[in-house]
Amino acid sequence: MSKQGNIGVTSENIFPIIKKFLYSDHEIFLREIVSNAVDATQKLKTLASVGEYKGELGDQTIRVTVDPKAGTLTVSDRGIGMTAEEIDKYINQIAFSGAEEFVEKYKNDAASIIGHFGLGFYSTFMVSKKVEIITRSCRDGAVPMRWSCEGNPEYLLEETVKEETGTDIILHIDDDNTDFLDKERISGLLKKYCRFLPIPIAFGKKQEWKDGKYVDTEEDNIVNDTRPAWTRKPVELTDEDYRKFYRDLHPMSDEPLFWIHLNVDYPFNLTGILYFPRIKNNIDINRNKIQLYSNQVFVTDSVEGIVPEFLTLLHGVLDSPDIPLNVSRSYLQSDQNVKKISNHITKKVADRLEDIFRNDRPQFEDKWDSLRLFIQYGMLSDEKFYERAVKFALLKDTEGKYYTLDEYKTLIKENQTDNDGQLVYLYTNSIEEQYSYIQAAKDKAYSILLMDGQLDVHLVGQLEQKLEKTRFVRIDSDTTANIIRKNDATHVELSSDQRSALQEIFRSQAPKTEKTDFHISFEALGEKANPVMLTQSEYIRRMREMSAMQPGMAFYGEMPDNYNIVLNTDHALIKKVIADQETACAASLDPITADIKGWQARQTDLRSKQDQKKDEEISAEEKEDLENTNRKLEELNSLRNVILAQYAADNSLVHELIDLALLSNGMLKGEALSKFIRRSIQMIDPGQ
Ligand code: ADP
Ligand code: MG
Which protein residues have their CB within 5 A of the ion that is ligand 2? Predict the structure, then answer.
């Protein structure tokens, strides 16, 4: 029997469409024909197991060969084969999917049939000028058939000679795609798409080194692992099996922290192994390490849209025939099955973490530092996960101890509640840089959290919203006395002259750095505390940090850094600055101060008189008088400030104090640092 005809498609000519638009990735044709071969082989196995096929199954290895001279790539299987009618039905009428019908018939046995690839077979025309099928059906007395088609709606179907049951698909690769005749290329593609297919796939022979060159051995070069770890039962697997599988998948990664073996068959089908990697910093470089399979056929390694974003940080394999494969990502996101699957995975991940936390807390703590970015990312981006994780997410203090949120709350409740009833969580982002603040806080028996992770600033914001009456404050954002405001604040005893003099002395000598503002404030912190401290507003600092990571917050990035220079009025050195200044400047300042007093009295007097009158009742002379007085006072004050600034400019104690405060914040650098060193040496040894 020989037959010529037209391929039964509704559109005029489907081939140009296939060639250009079907898949942007031409290489997937290989996945399609190899998975068809796998289907056919599994179908035959199924038939044999239900007794419908009585012949020998024989060696079922699928063979892939390239012949660069002939320009062909061939995939041969020992599967079910096709009769002429079947070719007609399954190949010629391409809208018809044979797999679907088969699955319908053998529902219970043929669960693993790959059949979701739509125009699978015809994808070969993306790379071929001609495709041949040489096939012999497994049915008794079947006539072997040869089908061929040259990428147009005409095909040829004729009888042929073929001894064994099964199918050879022969692609005559077209001139634009000769790279698919390259052995290395094909080997790479088999590795990518066929690595875990359930039927052995041979690509050539294993080679050995003989007489100065590589030669083929007798042994098939099998490219796949037919029973990858995720398809096996967890009880069959040791920890080492899981680790080995991880190394196979991600040879460049560190050992995983732990893993989850997924196995669901209702209401959807999902298997897989997800590994928790060690994420040290930068979450972005860890993405896209999950590979998605459909019945062991590789589909993609970018799973965004399929699993919640934070889960893309996990590594491993997901396998589900229920995820629609050849559809757009936006479709995936709204697909109900995909939603269910992704909720399920989130739940399993949370279950696993909670399980380890409850049953093996030491291990959980031990791995927390490598896990936290993942967990925090989940908490920040997925409400459901937050609700689960809030039970096992840990906080770490500067001593390296770990607490759950609840435990920590209990720990600090007593000592760290401020006079507004707010619970104050103190934290540092660098034990080294904020050492002196930490020490001072410890002296007050405060507990300090170490929050030095990439997401901590965001987490702090989230926790403040979620937890009631809770505030997070970085340890350097206020003096230790005031960081948790209680009722025992002490009074600063300075006259207003002393205040304004000190203010001017330090303000005039504060560093002049672009985009950095310094304010002077006074506090009575006790004789033992440092004379000068630098603090930084929590709010502004946090906004700046967040703006660095988030677009749309550039405004905060433009704001100047704000520091407070806090002078401890109890400290002997600050008292000395005041006393020294009073002595040194007495001659030049006393007359000015007296003058100022006089003019101030006059100002008060004039103001109170004018306050009693309506505007129209105040005469021009009276107005002028007040203006003159104001101006005079301004002049005198600025004169006074000039004298104080001049005095301060030459005062090494003032400079030393400011520098020490900067130094303890790691802010003394470059020229300022070397000046400080020189000055310090001179102060220790004035002979220098
Ligand atoms: P699908 O695999 O989704 O059914 P394909 O276009 O890949 O779609 O294949 C169409 C049909 O052609 C298959 O369902 C199967 O019946 C038949 N077929 C393709 N390749 C083979 C093969 N190697 N052996 C037997 N039948 C095959
Ligand atoms: Mg197919």
Answer: 36, 117, 120
CA distance 430 to 451: 8
Taking only the tens place, the pLDDT of each residue in 117-148 is 356 788 898 899 999 999 999 998 899 999 99
Q: Name the class of domain 2-214.
A: alpha beta
CATH of domain 229-373: 3.30.230.80
Instruction: Please list the residues that pair with 133 across neighbouring strands.
Output: 147, 169
Q: Which residues contact ligand 1 via a Cβ below 6 A?
A: 32, 36-37, 39-40, 77, 79-82, 90-91, 97-99, 115, 117, 119-121, 167
Instruction: List, for residues 232-275, the tens digit of each pLDDT value.
Output: 999 999 999 999 999 999 888 889 999 999 999 888 899 999 99
Question: For a substitution probing ligand 1, which of 28, 33, 53, 90 has the most ligand atoms within 8 Å of its CB?
Answer: 90
Beta-bridge partner residues of 544: none
Output DSSP code: residue 448.
E
Which atom, in ligand 1's list, is nearest to the CA of 117? 3
3-state helix, strand, coil in the chain (%, to 5): 45, 20, 35
- CATH dotted code for 397-483: 3.40.50.11260
Identify which has the larger pLDDT, 213 or 546: 213
- Hey, is 25 helix, strand or coil? coil
Name the E strands within 295-374.
297-300, 315-319
Distance from C-alpha of 141 to C-alpha of 658, rounded to nearest angstrom: 100
pTM: 0.78
User: What are 381-421's pLDDT values in tens digits?
Assistant: 999 999 999 999 999 999 999 999 999 999 999 999 998 89
**What are 54-88's pLDDT values in tens digits?**
888 899 999 999 999 999 999 999 999 999 999 99
